[in-house]
Design a protein that fits this description.
By secondary structure, the protein is mainly α. It has three helices and no strands.
Length: about 100
């Protein structure tokens, strides 16, 4: 059983995330938005006279020309992160296999 512990944990995590997604999708209409918008809405509810002062260091250095390019860059960022994570999984999996082959020899 200990041989497949990591695989079982990964499968359970994927099943759990899929179950949460299906549950959320089937329980009504949900509006997904960024946390910045939620924070601004909550501030305006709490204190309608609150005025947000923009810090110059928070102004974006690069503004994508369109929403499609912004989405593309966001997805590319996710792909690079996933590639790093799965490379690490593959590396450690290969190391484990090499050790098992050495122990059998």
């Amino acid at each position: 059983m200990a041989k497949y512990t990591l695989e079982i944990i990964c499968i359970l995590a994927v099943v759990l995330m899929a179950a949460v997604f299906v549950y959320q999708a089937s329980t009504g209409e949900h509006e997904y938005g960024g946390t910045d918008g939620v924070a601004a809405d909550m501030l305006s509810e709490y204190d309608p006279d609150y005025e947000l002062i923009e810090d110059p260091s928070w102004i974006p250095k690069f503004e994508p020309p369109s929403g499609e390019i912004e989405s593309l860059l966001f997805c590319l960022q996710g792909v690079v992160g996933a590639a790093i994570v799965f490379f690490a999984f593959g590396y450690y999996y290969a190391q484990r296999n090499m050790k098992n082959k050495e122990n059998k020899s």
